[in-house]
Amino acid sequence: MAFDLDLSNPYPSGADGHFYGGPGQGGHVGDNWTISHGMDLGAPVGTPVRAAFTGKVTNIFTPAAPSGGIYGDQISIRQNPDSAGGVGAFYTHLRSNVTVGSFVSRGEIIGEIVEFGDIPTHLHLALGERRNNVYAGVNLYDHFMATANTDTVLMVRFFQDGSAPQLA
């Protein structure tokens, strides 16, 4: 069943205007939706990162153990956490200030950008539509680039049938 979700940019302010690639670009390839559908949104160290939508924090890796701890924390947030459908978000390259099990509101600060290695500082954000307990990556990179440094709210319709979401 289709549903609409209000999404906000994780940077209503502070983005540095550098966008380092979206889904399928650069290193964003492979079968894992958190990588292949990643959006790299530039910002200086210390920039607050906000939740793109209201949901429940389901996982935090501090520092990101799956990556050897070199990329800062990884945070997963699920909209509609008690359902087989909905949307999930994966954030990394930040220092978390939320806890697993907590609910966050769209626009709430969930962490801040950290420096790692010699890679330009940025947020890696991936969105996935959850259908029957399986995630499929969602490409909203152009919309996040267009709304950086604004408080614009996008209403996005998710059809839950395998078709791409659309701005409602």
UniProtKB/TrEMBL annotation:
Name of the protein this chain belongs to: M23ase beta-sheet core domain-containing protein
On the tree of life, the source organism's domain of life is Bacteria
This entry's Gene Ontology molecular function terms read: metalloendopeptidase activity
The M23ase beta-sheet core domain extends over: 36-131
Pfam families referenced in this protein's UniProt entry, alphabetically: Peptidase_M23
Q: Which PANTHER family match?
A: MUREIN HYDROLASE ACTIVATOR ENVC, PEPTIDASE-RELATED
